[in-house]
Design goal:
The protein has about 350 residues and is α/β, with parallel strands linked by helices. It is built from ten helices and 18 strands. Strands 3, 5, 6, 9, 10, 17 and 18 form a seven-stranded mixed beta sheet that branches. A six-stranded parallel beta sheet has the order 13-12-11-14-15-16, with helices on one face. Helix 4 packs across helix 5 and helix 4 crosses helix 9. About 45% of the residues are buried. Bound molecules: zinc ion (2 copies).
């Protein structure tokens, strides 16, 4: 039962004297409301039946965390411990896994009863909630998560690389959803970590060309330095069979269909803030396909775990690793646009 945690002021589950747990507070990165995010004391978690405790090793931060910490996320409540991209080590033996086993925490909490869940598509559950958005996240010393949401990782997998499994699963699903074929031309709008991971997956999936565009010069330079083929979207009309929009930025939506060739697809990967303009006449005249993609299925996660072991060198996208105490600084550095992937280091870090 995760519902009770949703209303906690800290977003983390509480301990209590009655259950005999150690009430010692622990450190966590807490969004305190407005634009205030900083390390703070929170109560140690008291897991419910069926939940396990994980010592976080690395926690990736992304645009969703930025939205939360700017007070723009519609579901996050002040007092939330952030962090939905979590890998760590089990505190106690759980199921087949021994204490200390490395695990990825699948943060999706689905209701199990809505139509999407009943049809086996729990990742688009109508009541989907996430660890680190709707309930306390992993930017802390100890995280409680449902035991059946823990994915065992091979001991040989570097946990810093494993911290990219969550965004890699997002990217992998976007390319799977696109139904891109070998020999197709792919164009990715937005060269943040998701854009770069989508481009990497598109290349693996057989795209004959993979181009990217990025309006922030520093990011464009960083992507070019990593070997990605950057283009200016001016004059790029009809440049791709599949266009991946990884921006969610209202300046992109009026133009994004124009970059798709006749019969092509446009995949919405980035989360738009609300209603934006697209020219549906283009969709009709040129038989374009508009495809949505949201988070990932357990199979996408399994494939991402495999890819993170060498199919894609994900660790090269990490540009900063900071301690939990610097959580506020980490958010500020992402906001400044000077970083690709920023990780926070938890107590189980190597
Ligand atoms: Zn994320
Ligand atoms: Zn559901």
């Amino acid at each position: 039962m995760v519902g009770s945690q949703d209303t906690e002021t800290t977003g983390a589950s509480t301990s209590s004297a009655c259950c005999g747990r150690d009430p010692t507070p622990m450190r966590a990165v807490v969004w305190q409301g407005g634009t205030v995010v900083a390390a703070a004391d929170v109560p140690a978690p008291a897991p419910e039946p069926g939940w396990a405790l994980v010592k976080p090793a690395y926690v990736g931060l992304c645009g969703t965390d930025l939205h939360i910490c700017r007070g723009e996320h519609p579901r996050a409540k002040p007092g939330l411990v952030i962090g939905h991209e979590v890998v760590g080590r089990l505190l106690h033996a759980t199921g087949d896994l021994q204490a200390g086993s490395p695990v990825f925490v699948n943060p999706l909490l689905s209701c199990g009863t809505c139509r999407a869940c009943r049809r086996g598509r729990s990742h688009i559950c109508e009541n989907l909630r996430l660890i680190g958005i709707d309930v306390g996240g992993g930017a802390t010393e100890l995280l409680a998560a449902p035991a059946d949401h823990l994915v065992a990782l091979p001991a040989s997998l570097d946990l810093r690389a494993a911290a990219l499994i969550e965004p890699l699963a997002v990217a992998l699903r976007a390319v799977r959803r696109s139904e891109m074929h070998v020999g197709d031309r792919a164009h990715v709008v937005g060269a943040g970590p998701i854009g770069l991971l989508v481009a990497s997956c598109a290349r693996l999936a057989g795209a004959v060309t993979v181009t990217l565009s990025e309006p922030v010069p520093r990011r464009a330079e960083a992507a070019a330095a990593l070997g990605f083929d950057m283009v200016d979207t001016e004059g790029q009309d009809r440049c791709a069979d599949v266009v991946f929009d990884c921006t969610g930025h209202p300046s992109v939506s009026p133009k994004v269909l124009g970059w798709a060739a006749a019969g092509g697809s446009v995949v919405t990967v980035g989360a738009y803030p609300g209603v934006v303009g697209v020219n549906l006449q283009e969709v009709m005249f040129r038989e374009l396909k508009m495809i949505g993609t949201r988070v990932y299925t357990p199979d996408d996660v399994a494939a991402a775990v495999t890819l993170a072991q060498g199919g894609i060198d994900v660790s090269r996208f990490v540009t900063a690793v900071l301690p939990l105490e610097d959580g506020g600084l980490a958010i500020a550095r992402i906001q400044a646009g000077s970083e690709l992937k920023v990780l926070l280091e938890g107590p189980a870090a190597a």
